[in-house]
Amino acid sequence: MLKRILRDLVDRLDRRLLPLAASGGLVASAYYLFCSRQFRREHRAVLAGRLAYYRSLDQPLRSSPLLRRNVHRLEKGLVMQPRAATFAADYIEETVDEFARLRAAGTLDPVEDQWAADVLAEYFAVVQDAPPIAQAGARYASLATKPAGSAEPRSIPHARSSWPDVPVSYDQFLGLCRRRRSVRWFEQRPVPRELVMQAVDAAAQAPSACNRQPFLFRYFGAPADAARIAGMAMGTTGYAENIPALVVVLGDLSCYPEERDRHVAYIDASLAAMQFMLALETLGLASCPINWPDIEQRERTLARELDLPWQLRPVMLLAVGYAEPSGGVPFSAKKTGAALLRERNDYAP
What we know:
By secondary structure, this protein is an alpha+beta fold. The chain has helices spanning 2-21, 25-34, 40-56, 65-78, 92-105, 110-126, 131-141, 170-179, 193-203, 223-230, 264-282, 296-306, 337-340, and strands at residues 215-220, 245-252, 286-291, 312-321.
């Protein structure tokens, strides 16, 4: 009773403070410094991510956020219309240096190595020389430009017309989207890991800012593990024990050196998660995205369970399994396109 009275008192005081706290940036910062601890974990995670990023510049990596970002920037320059005769002079040396460093370490993923090598080769073949470009080009030419056993160049921009047609109509795709609903009742049989891997391969095709793909999928295929971890979230009471497999989607803040990109990991991980869920439907599996609450006690519990470094943030949980045929699924009426698409500054619900 006393706790409830105190909580109500704190809530009333907080509501009175909100107009002042929301009136400007300085008072908003003071509010979160003295009156609320809600963003302290995020602050530390962003700083830990930046620190991990800079430390990674001296480490052997399987995938380099710096190299991925810069190679994608080169790709965008290559497809510009009209294409500039000279571009990327301000970061081409940094790109070649990172590529050479990881080539020497021998740790770079072969797919990433192939892509970087092909794009750099195409760039130096078409760009006009300028002092930094010529110097970077000479260093690139001194490298073995292909990993052992690689195929001919193929990881470069291609004309849209060269990509194969996809025989999926809008009605078929809309049917897939409508079929994907949050399933909470599953058959109690194992989920083949190879099917989950296929869905992850589809998720990897999702767009991400500068192709950095700042996300990971942590998989738990044992029902006991799935139930325990699902129970760490909110809103899973009554069905967590029914989940046969679980995926924890993690955003990786170590892909960014600047605070300005701190939200991108959540955006990109969510784009990938949506493709993952749609892919599961095509493989005969169902899913249920489980909201992860940003509550300190729950964050600490999950971080201990998964042994997470500070820069890896949980974005959502995904229950995975074969849907129980007789299990109920909420209808969940969706808003229409007419309700969501706006052409003027009318933001009323």
